[in-house]
Amino acid sequence: MNAMKKILLGEQGLVVIFALAFAIVSIFVPNFLTERNMLGLLQSVVTIGIVACTMMFCLASRDFDLSVGSTVAFSGMIAVMVSNASGSILLGLVAALLAGSAVGFVNGVIIAKFRINALITTLATMQIVRGFALIASDGRAVGINDPSFYQLALSRILTIPAPIWVMVLLFLVFGFILNRTVFGKNTLAIGGNPEASRLAGVNVVRMRIWIFALQGLVCAVAGILLASRITSGQPNAATGLELSVISACVLGGVSLAGGRAAMTGVIVGVLIMGIAENVMNLLNIQAFYQYVVRGFILLIAVLLDNMRSSAAGRGRA
Amino acid sequence: MRDGAVMAFLEFRSISKGYPGVQALSDISFSVEKGAVHGLMGENGAGKSTLIRILSGDQSADAGSILIDGAEQNYRSVRDAFDAGVIVIHQELQLVPELTVAENLWLGRFPARAGVIDGRTLVETVRSRLTDIGIDVDPGAKVSSLSIGARQMVEIAKAVMLDARIIALDEPTSSLSSRESEILFSLIDRLRSRGTVILYVSHRLDEIFRLCDSLTVLRDGKLAAHHQKVADTTREQIITEMVGREISNIWGWRERPLGAVRLEVRGMSGTRLPVPISFSVRQGEILGFFGLIGAGRSEMARLVYGADRRHTGTVAIDGVTTAPGNPKAAITAGMVLCPEDRKFDGIIQGRSIEENITISSRRHFSPIGMLNPKREADLADQFIAKLRVRTPSRRQDIINLSGGNQQKVILGRWLSEQGVKVLVIDEPTRGIDVGAKSEIYDILYELAAGGMAIIVISSELPEVMGISDRIMVMCQGRIAAEIARGEFDERRILTAALPDKNAAGTI
């Protein structure tokens, strides 16, 4: 019992759970372990996976971002509308990336510089940005004029769709940033002990702004790929994304209290979220039930986080 | 030998600092020479913390100046003080738990090329630096996995890494075991021989005599005494200087009549205390529990109180068995616990003294859950007066009080409950100065005289011996000895408390 607890709450616990779940599902769910379904599964987690990369940084530095879903929709919308208006896809993409970064930057400045609670700030920007997307499109989906925009999501490299490559690339990049760069270590440091970091000369305010801006930028990448896949800019796209992403991160061992994060954990968290949904689809479980399951996964994630923190933190004599 | 004209390396010149309503420091001047360990003593509220804050750059003085190596310092922030080579190590350590030792030491200045950290340099420089100053800690270990003592070493190593010329340590041993303290002391000795100036704030006289070359005593924000050589003074003299009056016997223990058995613990065990233990406490008795850190004293207290679940055994108050599960039941049965970590488990920060006193007892004021401000205020004032809590008002935020006064408020919280029969108090005077200590002891005697059964847990042997009627010595989760007051003997108690390393091998 104790040994099991140790494994499950330890660094590799999640990977063990994941491997078990994967094996069980492969055996018992028909059509699960096929190339087609695997690619479909990965396709379905691209948005969550990409946004989770930077959400991990956000949470690790003791912050929080609820505005990611809106930012994804907004920047996807910008990409489509600017491409349509200018006739240049490149211009559309640049505009979308700038728009996403701008949202993140504003979040960061308000939170870090004016010291407003991140939950409240991003709750506000989440609504504001969603509002912008709706206003710009008059509430309707905006179709894409130039078909080569579709190719962003549809093109394949070595038979694997491009968005999956992008996600994997971002996993690698952000895993490297977290573990091997000053930026990553400072992120963990300000989450673990903001005061100590400040005293050690880490520019905490600037770091937090950067993290949010980066979060916005990455949301824009996700937004562009999403728009390309659904072949239009949808003002209502990615609603509730923030909760899925935060669930995945927490499930992946990122501490809500800051200071603790691992890329592998987040990847596994993302995949668990994806598998749960995929399996329910394969088993023809009604969509309504999926909300319940997702809710339970979030609860379990938070409980696990709590147990891990108490296992790690309260070693006081 | 130090002879002739030694240069003052650190000099305070006429430092004054006032807060609204109180003059924290007035006209403090003294100097410390290079390579000296300088003690800073005084009761809480004497101005030590304020002086340290000014030195650290956290606050600035209203008047006066600080000179380092003859140069006047004008720093305005902690950062500036860092750059001037002044580092203050507070009781709350400034480390990042999830980073490694090496990463913590390099934090803010990671060796990196294009933002990518050079992992080898990171670890190797730290390893050689740690070896250099004789600290035995793995640079690759996460700080969260280290003991408090090791973390303290890391904090000091950080100061050395930053080329600190002056290191101020604020009560560094308050959460260390005596072995860890000894390691710290030898580290301080090495730093001294390297020429670092150490400003050492402590309440513990034996440490001052063990470590310090020179000493400054503050009282009520004024310089009470300055000793160029600690060796030339005595404990009694320093205590007198600190409190401004003679304290012949700080323990003040007097014989009290003991009544019937009040608390009876039989065969009690729990997860972290696997071997069942039994003991009893009589009315009016103060039972001391002594043991090294990790001996199981606090675990024992939490089990008795019901904060942790008991696996076996019973706890009875006046012959009535209490429910094992929860603290609420213990309180109803007449037992209260003053926890060890005031900051963590005791005080409610951000709330007033009044609320901190009445939080538990105010539920009796109205059967339907309404507050009664008048009675709460009266009750608070009553205990502030009775326990001599030094505060301008009951509305003061508890965080602004000194440790001793916070402890009094927590005592007041439990004493304001009607019908307390058993008081369990864990480390009653940790981080509290001499004067306030004897006040707390007096309160305990008074309560015992009123028929209360009191369990005092302490890792300070003189304290346990000074105030207990009987001592239980714990070692590795067992009761190793029970000693009556007439037979108190420092050697015997310590021997019982030390785990016998040979025993396991010979049996």
Please tag this protein with its features:
heterodimer; A: 317 residues; mainly alpha; two-stranded antiparallel sheet; two-stranded antiparallel ribbon; 4 strands; 3% strand; globular; B: 507 residues; alpha/beta; 6-stranded mixed β-sheet; 26% strand
Please outline the helices and strands.
The complex is a heterodimer of chains A (about 325) and B (about 500).
Chain A: H1 2-9, H2 13-28, H3 35-44, H4 46-60, H5 68-86, H6 89-113, H7 118-137, E1 142-143, H8 151-154, E2 156-157, E3 160-161, H9 162-180, H10 182-192, H11 194-199, H12 204-229, E4 232-233, H13 241-251, H14 263-282, H15 287-313
Antiparallel strand pairs in A: 1-4, 2-3
Helix pairs in contact in A: 1-2, 2-14, 3-14, 4-9, 4-10, 4-12, 4-13, 4-14, 5-6, 5-7, 5-12, 6-7, 6-12, 9-10, 10-12, 13-14, 13-15, 14-15
Chain B: E1 8-19, E2 22-33, E3 37-41, H1 48-56, E4 63-68, E5 71-73, H2 78-83, E6 86-89, H3 101-106, E7 112-113, E8 116-117, H4 119-133, H5 148-161, E9 166-170, H6 178-193, E10 197-201, H7 205-211, E11 214-219, E12 222-227, H8 235-243, E13 261-270, E14 273-282, E15 286-290, H9 297-305, E16 310-317, E17 320-321, H10 327-333, E18 335-338, H11 342-346, H12 353-358, H13 373-386, H14 403-415, E19 422-426, H15 434-449, E20 453-458, H16 461-467, E21 470-475, E22 478-484, H17 490-497, H18 503-506
Parallel strand pairs in B: 3-10, 3-11, 6-9, 9-10, 15-20, 15-21, 18-19, 19-20
Antiparallel strand pairs in B: 1-2, 1-4, 4-5, 7-8, 11-12, 13-14, 13-16, 16-17, 21-22
Helix pairs in contact in B: 5-6
